[in-house]
Write a structure and sequence with these properties.
The structure is a single chain. The protein is of the alpha+beta class and 712 residues long. The chain has 4 domains: 15-41 and 58-67 and 333-443, Beta Barrel (OB fold (Dihydrolipoamide Acetyltransferase, E2P)), CATH 2.40.50; 91-306, 2-Layer Sandwich (D-amino Acid Aminotransferase, Chain A, domain 1), CATH 3.30.470.30; 540-626, 5' to 3' exonuclease, C-terminal subdomain (DNA polymerase, domain 1); 642-709, Rossmann fold (3-Layer(aba) Sandwich). Helix content is 36%, strand content 19%. It contains 26 helices and 24 strands. The strands form 7 sheets. The chain has a 5-stranded mixed beta sheet with strand order 2-11-10-3-9. A 5-stranded antiparallel beta sheet has the order 14-13-12-15-16, with no helix packed on it. Strands 5-4-7-8 form a 4-stranded antiparallel beta sheet. Strand 13 and strand 14 (367-373) form a beta hairpin. Helix 1 runs antiparallel to helix 2 and helix 12 (460-470) packs antiparallel against helix 13. The model is unreliable at 1-9 and 82-87 (pLDDT under 50).
Length: 712
């Protein structure tokens, strides 16, 4: 069965034109697409989307979140860094997280970034920035102790990377010893391969019948992440240093001076790095670098701007995945034209019918593309969800000559149609009104851009996709039981629900005799599978919630729910007892920062649906669900407390206050409820202060808050 494609509703509509329901659907689609793209890029070293088009999707996600902040998903791509680790390397926990960067695409985005920095800092005076090329390679962190290289690690998911120390020692640009460095120095930069070296490597690989690489970034990443360090040594890898992590002593007081210090220690730094005082100067440098892009001899995909003053960087701090003091100004995407050979309909785990274009293969941005998303029936017909024309009203037909750009996931996007090359016999596409998998009616609710199969659990496509999700890396992650095995077991009638996985051995006696006779299985692999299943009977609450595959619930939102309720018993009782839209249990659910009404209703509905609930109960009966507790810093007077800020703050901006509270282990909420522990009220406090008084919530002014946290 073909791999199902996630729901692609209203993907053609501008964020400002979306209804709340449409925005919810679109955020769910973007979350799935970008998660898969992260895995392809960071884990598999085989990116199937261009960086610019990946960033366009991420930008769309941010725009929708900005318009509908209450709908932001807890697994939002704006909160994700990197992806899970590949197998074969030991793990390294970064002492200082390796974060990604916010992206800019237009001059206005850069101006907005500068304005936000000034507003956050309350700064009217001079403000300097550095600008440096954004190298398209693999991020690497190098730890030196007493001047000696002791550890090298990839970014991984930002918190945990892969130990590639022996491989890094084989790269000529990476010094093994430093003179005059701090006792502890963690240097960060990018491993890359020049165009000339890439072409020579591919020629050698082709001569010996080995693997050739799609582009220099793939070649660099694949070369660094070799289990045999001798292979890395034979590859022409280079390294640019541009940042740092853990330090025992400061390198300098400014970003630019710190980069100069790294150069003096023996690291190669990019010669196009400059320091500027205005946004206009940054943009001028961007244009100069873009003009030189083709002649640099290595790949770049934009220019990075950073606040130069390191003291200001510390004040600005970080969001969940990006620093507030830096932004990447990206270059534009690439386009290509090709022929549309067929339109297939695939069914996702939520029942969404997703049309997929089968294309005559074409190279876009260095990658061969043969599939593209068509989003939904409106998009095919040349209109958006509101009925307004897109592509000048041109519909899409089999046989059309179409323009493709790589938008997200493994399936890029069709942007336009050349009607002058349309075949005379091309017919309008007739979107199915019945599910192609189970023949159940495919219904389209009013206001919904997506047509969905009504078959539910009787639809094999939905059942298989939910099982594939259940065993995915972020869910149960059962070794030896991946998507292909799940699909085969379902087809043969061995499993139909997640609970069936844990009763396999009981239902088949020892299970080994039946399994070992399957193609590709032997006695040892059968034993290993059942052992792996048993090992996953103990599962943390957050992973279980995510694994259930409830619509709108991603990894981060599952963690929020798990942390809030703590135990399965408390979570189950709340979801069972909640009344959607009213009551204290519902209010408590909505008080979770990051959980909106759409997500909350989806979870409650799943637990109160008899068929869904029976499947959940059967599964939990086979498990030992481990409780989850929130981690809080030691010696913080506000750790674990729910804090609300209101009114005007004089000594710090609201953003700084929130970031400081969260760093101390507090949870910052946007509204006052019976769960609120503390209200910090500045001048102009209104309804929130009244609500806090009525509920008996402790109220502090700004000075009292600063005294409480020790920052007065």
């Amino acid at each position: 069965m073909a791999r199902a494609v996630e729901n692609r509703s209203v993907a053609d509509a501008e964020p400002d034109a979306l209804s709340e329901a449409e925005a919810t659907e679109e955020l769910a689609r973007l979350s799935g697409l970008l998660r898969a793209a992260n895995t392809a890029y960071h884990t598999d070293d085989a990116p199937e989307i261009s960086d610019a088009e990946y960033d366009r999707l991420k930008r769309r996600n941010l725009a929708i979140e900005a318009r509908f902040p209450q709908l932001k998903r807890s697994d939002s791509p704006s909160d994700q860094v990197g992806a899970a680790l590949a197998e074969g390397f030991s793990k390294v926990t970064h002492e200082v997280r390796m974060l990604s960067l916010e992206n800019a695409f237009e001059a206005a985005d850069v101006a907005d970034f500068v304005d936000r920095v000034r507003k956050y800092l309350g700064l009217d005076g001079p403000l300097a920035f550095t600008a440096e090329p954004k190298i398209d390679g693999l991020s690497l962190s190098l730890r030196y102790e007493q001047g000696r290289l002791v550890q090298a690690a990839t970014r991984g998911d930002g918190e945990v990377g892969e130990n590639v120390t022996e491989n890094a020692r084989r790269i000529a640009d990476i010094p093994q010893r430093l003179e005059g460095a701090p006792d502890v120095l963690e240097v960060r930069g990018e491993v890359y391969m020049s165009h000339a070296d890439f072409q020579a490597l591919n020629a050698r690989q082709a001569e010996r019948g080995g693997k050739t690489f799609a582009n220099p970034r793939n070649a660099a990443a694949g070369s660094l992440r070799q289990l045999d360090a001798n292979i890395t040594a034979a590859r022409p890898l280079k390294f640019f240093a541009y940042a740092w992590g853990a330090l025992s002593a400061p390198l300098a007081e400014q970003q630019f001076a710190a980069i100069e210090k790294l150069a003096s220690l023996g690291f190669k730094t990019n010669p196009l790095t400059r320091r500027f005082d205005t946004a206009e100067a940054l943009l001028h440098h961007y244009a100069e670098i873009e003009a030189q892009r083709a002649s640099l001899g290595y790949d770049i995909d934009g220019v990075v701007y950073k606040v130069d003053d390191l003291a200001l960087q510390r004040r600005l701090g970080f969001r969940s995945t990006t620093p507030r003091w830096a932004i990447a100004h990206k270059f534009a995407a690439e386009l290509a034209w090709t022929r549309l050979l067929a339109i297939d309909i695939q069914v996702g785990r939520t029942g969404a019918l997703s049309p997929v274009a089968r294309l005559q293969p074409v190279t876009v941005g260095g990658v061969v593309v043969s599939n593209a998303t068509l989003h939904n029936e409106d998009y095919i017909q040349g209109r958006d969800s509101k009925g307004a024309p897109i592509r000048e009203g041109k519909d899409i037909r089999v046989g059309d000559f179409v323009q493709v750009y790589r938008a997200g996931d493994v399936i890029p996007k069709i942007a336009d149609v050349d009607l002058s090359q349309r075949p005379d016999d091309a017919q309008p596409f007739d979107f199915p009104t019945f599910c192609p998998e189970c023949q159940s009616p495919a219904l389209r609710e009013e206001g919904d851009a997506v047509r969905r199969c009504s078959g539910g659990l009787i639809c094999p496509a939905q059942a298989v996709e939910r099982l594939r999700h259940f065993v995915s890396r972020a869910a149960f992650d059962i070794e030896g039981l991946g998507a292909k095995q799940v699909e085969a077991f379902f087809k043969d009638g061995w499993i139909a629900t997640p609970a069936d996985i844990f009763t396999l051995k009981a239902r088949f006696g020892t299970g080994i005799q039946q399994l070992k006779n399957r193609e590709g299985w032997g006695p040892k692999s059968a034993e290993n599978l059942f052992d792996a299943i048993d090992e996953k009977r103990k599962i943390p609450l957050n992973r279980l919630i995510f694994a259930l595959g409830i619509r709108h619930v991603g990894e981060s939102s599952a963690s929020l729910l798990a942390t809030h309720y703590g135990s399965w018993a408390a979570f189950e009782a709340a979801m069972t007892g909640a009344t959607i839209g009213e009551g204290p249990v519902w209010a408590d659910l909505l008080s979770i920062d990051g959980v909106g009404a759409v997500l909350a209703a989806s979870v409650v509905a799943a637990f109160q649906n008899p068929r869904e609930r029976a499947a959940i109960d059967s599964l939990v009966a086979e498990l030992e669900v481990q409780s989850v507790t929130a981690r809080a810093p030691v010696d913080s007077p506000v750790a674990g407390k729910i804090v609300v800020f209101t009114g005007t703050l004089a000594k710090m901006t609201r953003a700084e206050a929130k970031a400081r509270a969260e760093s101390l282990g507090a949870k910052v909420a946007g509204s006052v409820s019976a769960k609120t522990d503390l209200l910090v009220a500045g001048p102009g406090a209104g309804s929130k202060a009244k609500a806090a008084e009525a509920l008996g919530v402790e109220i502090l002014d700004e000075d009292g808050w600063l005294a409480l946290i020790g920052s007065a």
